[in-house]
Amino acid sequence: xxxxxxxxxxxxxxxxxxxxxxxxxxxxxxxxxxxxxxxxxxxxxxxxxxxxxxxxxxxxxxxxxxxxxxxxxxxxxxxxxxxxxxxxxxxxxxxxxxxxxxxxxxxxxxxxxxxxxxxxxxxxxxxxxxxxxxxxxxxxxxxxxxxxxxxxxxxxxxxxxxxxxxxxxxxxxxxxxxxxxxxxxxxxxxxxxxxxxxxxxxxxxxxxxxxxxxxxxxxxxxxxxxx
Amino acid sequence: xxxxxxxxxxxxxxxxxxxxxxxxxxxxxxxxxxxxxxxxxxxxxxxxxxxxxxxxxxxxxxxxxxxxxxxxxxxxxxxxxxxxxxxxxxxxxxxxxxxxxxxxxxxxxxxxxxxxxxxxxxxxxxxxxxxxxxxxxxxxxxxxxxxxxxxxxxxxxxxxxxxxxxxxxxxxxxxxxxxxxxxxxxxxxxxxxxxxxxxxxxxxxxxx
Lengths: 227, 208
Description:
A: mainly alpha; 80% helix; elongated; B: five-stranded parallel sheet; 27% strand
C-alpha cells in the first residue's frame, strides 16, 4: 500500500511539472495533428500517420520525464522510494494524460476522415498513446542523455511510419500492433484481437526493460549497519 | 570521543577507467562530531560523499552507518517546475511522512535557513542560494543520524553562510555525525576535525 502511495505522489508531481510546461503541452497535441494534416492528401493513410505520429509526442514527453530527473530520482531512491515507484508514478500520470489527448485527437480525425469503424480508431490511437509510455520509459532508462534518447525515438517511430506495414521490420517495431488497429478501423476488415494482444505483450516487455535499466540507473547501495 | 561511530569508511577505493580517484580511504565519524573534508580539486571528495550516501558503488572497501543518511549534493537535484512545498511533500512521502507533517517539518527547516516561506515560485525561478537552502532542508527532512554535506553553502549570502556554521554546532549538539566538504579554510576552527584527501597521482598520469 505504501508503495502505491509513493507511486501516486510521484504521479501527482509529474502531473504538476508537465502542466506547468505550456509549450510542451501545446506540442503534445500539435505534433500528431501536424502529421495528420500533412498526410490528409494521401487519403485514409492520414489517420495511420496521425495516430502513429502521436507516439512522437507521448513517448517524447515520457522520455524527457525520465532523463531530466536522473539526479533527483536517485536522491528519491536514497530517501525511501523504489525505482519501481518512480516508473509507476510516471505511468499513472502519463497513461490517463495520453488517453485524454488520444481521445481528443481521435475525435478530430474521425470527424474529418470518417473511417469505417470509428470506435476502432479510438482504440488504435489509444493503444499508440499507451504503448508510447513504456517505450519512452524504456528508452529513457536505457540511454544516458536526451540527445541519444531523442534520436532513438525518431529512428524507431520514423521507421514505423516509413516501412511497408507488412514487412518483417514493421512487425518487429513497438507500434506495429497499434498501427494495425488503426488500419483496421479504416474499413470493415482487418484483425483486432491479434494486434491488441501483440501491443499488450510488447508493452509489458518494454516495462520490464524500463524497470531493469531504471533499477541499474538509480538504485542506491544500502550500507550495512554499525554493530 | 565517547559517542558511538555513526559512519565508518574502511579501505574504500574507486577508479574511473584507468584513473584512481580513491585508494584505500578510511574515515570514522562519531555522533556529535563535525568533520571537514578537504582536498584539491579532483581529490575525490564528492565521489567519497556519493559513495557514503550510497549513490555510487565503491570498487573496494566497505561503508557502514549507524542510522539514516541525509545527503546534500553540491548541485541541487531538484525538479525545475516544482515548488519547495512540492519537494517537501515528495521527499517526505519517501519515508512515510504525511503531507502536512512533511510541510510542517520542512517549513520549520526552511525558516531556520532564512528561506522566504511566502515564496511560491518553482525552483527554476529561485536564486542559487535559495535553491541551496531547499536542497539542505531536503537532506534534513527526515532527521538523519548522518549528514553528508557537499559544499552546501554555495550561493549563500554572508549572513546565511555564517548561520550555516552555527547550524553545524546545533547538529553536533543533537548528536548527528556531520561531514562537510569545504574549501573554506577560515571556517575550519568551527569543526572538530579536518580530513584532507590527497590527489592520487594517477589522476594526472593515468597510471594505476
